[in-house]
Amino acid sequence: MEDIKLDNLENKITIGLAGNPNTGKSTLFNRLTGLKQHTGNWPGKTVSSTKGYFAYKGRKYTLVDLPGTYSLFINSQEEEIARDFICFGNPEIVIVLVDATSLERNLNLALQIMEATDNVIMCVNLMDEAEKKGISIDIKKLEEKLNIPIIPTVARIGEGIESLLKTIDSIVSGELKIKPNKTIYDEFTERAIGEIENVLKTELNSAFNPRWIGLRLLDGDLNMKKEIKNILLKSNSGYSFNQIENILNTYDDLGEKIVIRLYDRAEAIAKDVVIHKASNKERLDKKLDDILTNKFTGYPAMLLLLGIIFWITIVGANYPSDLLSELFFRLMK
Amino acid sequence: MNAKRLIPLTHLPIGETERVKYIEDSHMKRRFLDLGLTPNTIVKTERYSPSGNPIAYRFRATIIAIRREEAENIFVSR
């Protein structure tokens, strides 16, 4: 986090890149930053982090590749890092990369990020894979439902990247103002959120999003609770923290309700926006799986493949190896 | 009479579909919810791995492999 602050001093604009694992984040990351990146570890964690740089229309950007996560709820170090960065790392924009072939599940994270920040851009990646599987997505309808910029991409070949850069530029220049269609919860939950918002609004400075923090606290995010406690105690608002604790004790089991609500919404959106036609690729994939993973042919297939690899290593490689030594021998003569 | 009762997901035969009714509290419960295995979600047993563990389940347009010990905590109606 420290070197990002240094980058900010150099007037670089920080952008976070979030998404489910295996959605092509690294591919997109490499497309945007080329070789201008370095990897390391997130401080105090065993998860590797990658940071890169790019410039567009006279502005410099720092792109942070966040670990792949299915949610911002902390199930493991990856979610903690992603959540910490989005909350305390102050990115100007968060790009959430979703997989066009499993939009419904990917929307969970996207909806959560939309709660954390207004400046969200969604890239629907793997559009080529989706097409092969007979899946098509009504991007325009999805945009209407979420009210954030949505860019279809095939990061592998660079399709959509120019559009993404233009969108980033228009947000930074102030030309495009985003007001995401945030998720509304049931009355009971909304009441709980409101109560916490009231306490937080007066205590926290505007850098923090009280609604989102309220949701995380009600969700059972203990790390967030600790952070907020520290912040409130530092500014001598111990009383406020007690108020929050009381609210959390009253509404103590909302975590599941929150994630269920998010998936209900994701399901409704996907139903309206994703069109599925049967495809040959799925049938072929299934046939291969039937052979390679079933009890009777699976083990022989594995042994056969291993056998081939061993043969190549021990016997097969001798042929080119002999040819090479003959060549060098002749050259020496 | 079509009496519906709860069975663990591990008892759902391959190719069959049912709705999730309840997930036992465990360290994986929240992770399952975050993956979209929420109450009332339609889940289908896709296939078993050669040793019978883990088991591939299809729900919400994706396939996820779940360890047998953990799938036993998920109950569907049948």
Keywords:
heterodimer; A: 333 residues; alpha/beta; Rossmann fold; 7-stranded mixed β-sheet; two-stranded antiparallel ribbon; 9 strands; globular; B: 78 residues; mainly beta; SH3 type barrels; 6-stranded antiparallel β-sheet; 2 helices
Secondary structure blueprint with pairings:
The complex is a heterodimer of chains A (333) and B (78).
Chain A: H1 2-9, E1 13-19, H2 25-33, E2 37-41, E3 48-56, E4 59-65, H3 77-88, E5 93-99, H4 103-116, E6 120-125, H5 127-132, E7 135-137, H6 139-146, E8 150-152, H7 161-172, H8 187-203, H9 210-218, H10 222-234, H11 238-250, H12 255-273, E9 274-276, H13 280-292, H14 298-316, H15 318-332
Parallel strand pairs in A: 1-4, 1-5, 5-6, 6-8
Antiparallel strand pairs in A: 2-3, 3-4, 7-9
Chain B: E1 6-8, E2 17-23, H1 29-35, E3 42-48, E4 55-59, E5 62-66, H2 68-71, E6 74-77
Antiparallel strand pairs in B: 1-6, 2-3, 2-6, 3-4, 4-5
Question: Brief overview, please?
Answer:
With 333 residues, chain A is α/β, with parallel strands linked by helices. Chain A has helices spanning 2-9, 25-33, 77-88, 103-116, 127-132, 139-146, 161-172, 187-203, 210-218, 222-234, 238-250, 255-273, 280-292, 298-316, 318-332, and strands at residues 13-19, 37-41, 48-56, 59-65, 93-99, 120-125, 135-137, 150-152, 274-276.
